[in-house]
């Protein structure tokens, strides 16, 4: 049974004190995470240790990094290795967010290297994919996203691919208030799962969680998460607001 996941992506927001308060407030609210449901908080690097401490002993709650480097160690000033993350007890890393692809020129090949090193260290990549508006308008989004997966993930074995979480985030829906309709999300998620099934078989494809991201909020989470191939969300803006994110966690199916 694949996991249903509510993942917060704080991006480059909040001070340490604000982040600590937000986590305290969210954790204090009642939520009812079932066996196969997870809450994940992708926080800025300097807050990882604080966040790990806050969630200690909380069942099905994890902290994620928002990025890592593709090399093991060495003279890479300013970068953070997966070994460093592992030494903090971090088990998830967001990879290939569209903001990193756009502003930091992350290519599908670089992301393949990052995926590999994460798996080597037993850290689960939350691999982001998604098309810009021009591609959606040309109705070539399925091919575009298929290529992202093909170039970054399809060198993996069937055993390895089941360790990946995929997050579909149409760029035109990120931070814009413009959500993909639940039908648009379901259509892409089903296409991704069908593609994974063609490559790895249906059983493997059925084990892979595919999250939706892009203007998810309390008001639309239930509808989006209710789609059969949508296994939760990767949430930006609404993850910074206590009641919003708690409602999103509680909207997991
Ligand atoms: O990029 C996102 C999550 O990674 C989505 O951001 P918003 O929820 O702010 O649209």
Automatic annotation (TrEMBL):
One of its GO terms (molecular function) is triose-phosphate isomerase activity. The active site is at 97 (electrophile), 169 (proton acceptor). It catalyses: D-glyceraldehyde 3-phosphate = dihydroxyacetone phosphate. SUPFAM superfamilies: Triosephosphate isomerase (TIM). It is an enzyme of class 5 (isomerase). Belongs to the triosephosphate isomerase family. This is Triosephosphate isomerase.
């Amino acid at each position: 049974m694949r996991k249903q996941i509510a993942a917060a992506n704080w991006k480059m927001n909040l001070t340490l004190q604000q982040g600590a308060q937000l986590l305290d407030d969210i954790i204090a609210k009642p939520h009812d995470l079932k066996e196969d449901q997870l809450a994940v908080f992708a926080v800025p690097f300097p807050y990882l240790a604080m966040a790990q401490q806050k969630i200690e002993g909380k069942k099905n709650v994890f902290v994620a990094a928002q990025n890592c480097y593709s090399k093991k160690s060495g003279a890479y000033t300013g970068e953070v290795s997966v070994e460093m993350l592992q030494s903090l007890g971090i088990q998830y890393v967001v990879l290939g967010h569209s903001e990193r692809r756009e502003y930091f020129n992350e290519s599908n090949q670089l992301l393949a290297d990052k995926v590999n090193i994460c798996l080597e260290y037993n850290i689960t990549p939350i691999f982001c994919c998604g098309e810009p508006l021009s591609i959606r308008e040309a109705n070539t989004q399925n091919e575009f996203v298929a290529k992202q997966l093909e170039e970054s993930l399809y060198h993996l074995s069937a055993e390895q691919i089941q360790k990946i979480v995929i997050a579909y985030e149409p760029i035109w829906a990120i931070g814009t208030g413009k959500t993909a309709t639940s039908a648009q999300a379901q259509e892409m998620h089903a296409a991704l799962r069908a593609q994974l099934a063609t490559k790895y078989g249906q059983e493997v494809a059925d084990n892979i969680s595919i999250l939706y991201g892009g203007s998810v909020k309390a008001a639309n989470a239930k509808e989006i998460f209710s789609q059969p191939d949508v296994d939760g969300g990767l949430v930006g803006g609404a993850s910074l607001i206590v009641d919003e994110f708690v409602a999103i966690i509680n909207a997991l199916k």
